[in-house]
Amino acid sequence: MAQQLFGKLFADKGYLSKALCEVLFADGIQLFTKLRKNMKNHIMKMEDKILLRKRVIIETINDELKNHCQMKYSRNRNVNNFMMNILGGLTAYSFFPKNRQST
Predict the structure, then answer these.
(1) H or E element at residue 9
(2) Model pTM?
(3) Phi-psi region of 28 (alpha: psi -120 to 50; beta: other; left: phi over 0)
(4) Which InterPro entries match (predicted)?
């Protein structure tokens, strides 16, 4: 399943290693993380910087789904099970009363 992946991967600093970056890059995947203190700064496109900042929002939504909709972490063995798990969580979330009003 992971052999068909390509594109950009936004992750935590904890996932950084030179070997992992090289393996992902060879497979056509760019790994983006915030820099550690001992790392040199490198030039990044503005759109990638913006997406890296948005990662926090995505994690917040995933946390809401996991905690409030009782979605469990599972290692899905195929894409269909993964999609059913996500759709079930989103469906449960849609039935929750709106506690927060967006302003």
Answers:
(1) strand 7-10
(2) 0.48
(3) left
(4) Tnp_DDE_dom (IPR025668)
Q: Quick: pLDDT tens for 54-86.
A: 777 777 777 777 777 666 666 667 778 878 877
Residue labelled with tokens 């913006």:
50
Per-residue pLDDT band for 49 (boundaries 50, 70, 90) equals confident
Q: Could you identify the residue written with the tokens 């927060």?
A: 100
DSSP state, residue 14: G
Task: State which amino acid sits at residue 61.
Answer: I
Same domain (yes/no): 61, 86 = yes
Number of domains making up the chain: 2
Identify whether residues 3 and 23 lie together within a single domain: yes
| Residue showing tokens 């809401």 | 64
Output 100 or 14, whichever has higher pLDDT. 14
Q: Which domain holds residue 13?
A: 1-42
